Amino acid sequence: MSRTTRCNVTFNDGTTIEIEKGTTVYELSKLYQPKMKTKIIGAELNNETVNFVTKINKSCNINFIDCNSINGYKINKYGLQFVLEVALKETFGDKYEVIFDHSIANGIHMTIESPKSFTINDATKLKTEMNNIINNDERITLLNVDKKEAMQYYKKVGADEKAANIHNVTNDIVTVYRLRNYLNYFYSEMPYSTGYLNKYELVFLSNNKLVLLFPNPNSKYKIPEYIHYQNVIKCFEDGQKWIDKMGIPYLDRLNEIVSESKIENLIKITETHFNNELNELVDDVIKKGSRYILIAGPSSSGKTTTTKKISLQLRSRGYETLVLSVDNFFKDKVDTPKKEDGTYDFECLEALDLKLLNKTLKDLASGKKTELPTYNFVTGEKEYKDEPVKLSDDAIILIEGLHAINDDMTPTLEASLKYKVYLSPFIPLNIDRHNYISTTDLRLIRRMVRDNRDRASDVGQTIEYWGSVRSGETKYIFPFINNIDRVVNTSLIYEIGVLKVFAEPLLYSVKPESPAYNEARRIINALRGFFPIPSDYVPGESILREFIGKSEFTNYK
Which residues lie closer than 8 Å to 101 by C-beta, 6 or more apart? Predict the structure, then answer.
């Protein structure tokens, strides 16, 4: 056989083999599986996730992945969602529909729409059919179909929002997946067949409310424990009720508002709604007689602007306020604990000068003139360059930072005087009934836009570092969420359309050789259906300005 009919493939472990051109990734996965300790679920061809039906026609590198990788986790997640949808229809009929509401700690929260209550016994039947489909190892077939045909299919099955989303993309051919006689699209590659899917668990919360759990990159191939955060779920539900009142159940309606030139009014309504939420929080603080508002939230949740907005609300009611950032109370760099790899651990509680923080709070409460530190991240030392502060007896201190809702940070403060706030952008607007922009993705998009603007950070590096940022949040915030006074949703229904304008050029700049390439392309694909929204309509006091620039709160103290 001529050498021109063959090519070389290099695998994860560096070994190279010669294959015949036209060999599929599926065939190579079977060859490589014995070398993997865990089940292969996907493949990266020259750093890009591909379907197993892809044919190899030139020399390349192939990295086979499992559910412990970010991309493998996504493939497993969407595959399980598809199996659940099909199992529901096959078991209970077409009048039953699953809505994947949003991500929740370690899983997906979902609602079963049904003619009657969906009970725990029904959930058991659903899981039985899911297991049957997985054990049967049924093909999940990739189909490239005509756009009009896909729209007709979704209209026929009553998924009008999906038909509208397909209408709004520019491609004449769209990619969908088929399992049995059901079609669906997801913003990720899918498993070759259901047998590739990993273990999962269904948690029954109440009638028609379930949680789907499955391994994630931090759970070491195990199904993570379900921890119920009722206050977070309620925050999502409140957001859903509000967008229902606005008549915007899914993305297609938001796009209509943009195309009808009515987005400016929606932005004003949304900003007013967020300010009303903060008004209610301030009412509660005053009613309880709290003197310390402790605000925690994950990266890019909008802590800075939200804290300043709350301060402004209090000042408008005659209260003196002081905003303290916990970041200014870091120990000097030489005294900062280190991780196992020798790098400084700025996220652990021990990185804070707790003795100084609590002394400062005590001195402020007693009416003493108190010097406040500013941490210099260049020198790694605290500086005192502002005038000392003296507060009135009824002043309210706002403290924002990663550990703010952990009582171990402020053990000297009376519990009755603390008001704990957890905030995060729990975006209630979904793309359609089966696809949503996760809270994590929204925060990542916010961060890449802000960091590129403020620090000229490379977006690829921001994406690569994101995993370590999230691990700190999981460790230092989530354990305390059930012991707080209020959850604040900092998402804005329109913001992804605005962020898209800033984020897309950055995401397209990620080169194929970058480790962040796959993730960048996935986000580009998810943003594709959002109509761009000009930032001109975003008011200067909006929380969104913290990320896109020109915030009126920049110099507010």
Answer: 108, 109, 110, 111, 236, 240, 430, 436
